[in-house]
Amino acid sequence: MPTAPRSPVAAVPALAPRAGPAPRTLCIDIGGTGLKALVVDANGTPITERARVETPHPAAPPAVLRAIWSLIEPLGAFERTSVGFPGVVVAGVTKTAPNLDPEWKDFPLGQTLADATRRPVRVLNDAGVQGYGVIDGRGVEMVLTLGTGMGCALFVSGRYVPNLELAHHPLHKGDTYEDHVGAAALAKLGKKKWNKHVARVIETVLPIFNPERIYLGGGNAKHVTLALPPNVKLTPNVAGLTGGFVLWRHDHPGAAHADDAIATEKPGAKKGRR
Fold it and tell me: pLDDT tens for residues 32-79?
């Protein structure tokens, strides 16, 4: 296993533990273009404005962690953290990050942030986090996020199916789904032709997964102008943050049993009530 970058925890200065009457959740969304964060209260209602900074390039872990710190430091107190990450995540360790940097392979993101903030942390694929913010929890539901790349998450009766990386599967003439609908394709093709590619993606996945609902999210979903099938719905991009609150609902089957969610806490730190 590759070693983590030198002194990764030092990249995010430690926060002193703070006690609170109810757990506030810091929700972080790591993207290939931007890093976003907000804090929600014990009911999942945002209590700060959404903060955003550009993703540094190259987007290696130390640079991204420093940017995250500049993002979250003004947001105030929180008792736990949820992170959406653009790649495969297993037990808080990032396995792939095609739109960030190769150094993210086998990087202990969950433990690094838990050590640095002295708070419990849960990390999930970003499309999975977005899904938790919008799904009904009934039947088969799919989330497709249109951003720097293409994210994909599948839920069965509210349970998250981990590690589904549809974006890098061939779709047409050797090009992948991400080649067709990622940000580079949007810039190259223009909105009209890009929308035709989005339609092709939807037409392809519907008879394969037969979901009751497909949710389209991500920063570029605002450019979708095609007539969508009845079971395909555009979702607000903020769900990529607010879905992080649901990761801490222990009665939610996906949050309780997803293999790539992690809850860690530094020994001796005060625990927020859950």
Answer: 999 999 999 999 999 999 999 999 999 999 999 999 999 999 999 999
Give the pTM.
0.85
Residue environment code for 38-72, b if the CB has 16+ CB neighbours within 10 A, otherwise e: bbbebebeebbeebeeebbeebbbbbbbebbeebb
Q: How many CA atoms lie within 13 A of 2 on its CB side?
A: 14
Q: Of 8, 56, 233, which Cα lies nearest the Cα of 136?
A: 233
CA distance 135 to 26: 21
Q: Tell me how far apart the alpha carbons of residues 147 and 125 are, in angstroms, rounded to a whole number.
A: 14
pLDDT, tens digit, 9 for 90 and up, residues 86-113? 999 999 999 999 999 999 999 999 999 9
- As given in the structure block, the two tokens for residue 212 are 């009751």
